[in-house]
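Protein 1 of 2
SEQ + STRUCT:
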Amino acid sequence: MSRVFIISFDRDSQKDYVPFNNAFTSDPAILNWWHYIKSCYIVKTDLNADKLSDLVRSYFEKHGLKKAHIVLAVDLDQRQGWLTDDAWKWIRERAAEVD
């Protein structure tokens, strides 16, 4: 069963996150992803929070990034904020998929 999680972390302005992003978002466990805020990903996955956290940590380690992060399950129907139209479209579409 697919779930949606937010992954939030402290971004180091001195580091390049493109290699991490490309590797992490290409992982087969990541079914879909959103990254409209630099230090935040929303991902759809079949993993539980523990396994997703392990996956995130492994990619941070591989790319020499700080491992500090948090993984939280989210209910995309409970949402509000100030984002681009594309970001809201992605969230609405994922919310419809997990209903």
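Protein 2 of 2
SEQ + STRUCT:
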Amino acid sequence: MLRDGGSLVFSMEHPLSEFTLRLADNYFDVEYVEFTWHGFGKPVVVPHFRRPLMEVFNSLSDAAFRLDKVVEPVPTLKFREQDPEDYERLRARPGFLCVRAVKDG
């Protein structure tokens, strides 16, 4: 439960990245997928739902949230030192989407 004026903050793999990297058949489908993340250290299986941007933003609107901020982060120079190949890919194509939405009263 969130009070009016409260913030919901979340991040997700960017739908564009999801679609192009995972070779999905249909961008507009909402489907359960698992991805093995090899970020730092031991690989981790990340279960989540692939969905188009309109599904993300319209679901927020339908639940009486208004978008406050949307960020498509770019990798840092420190990231480049640790993973030059992914750095080059992520500075040209979004990997994550970060959203802050506010509950309207």
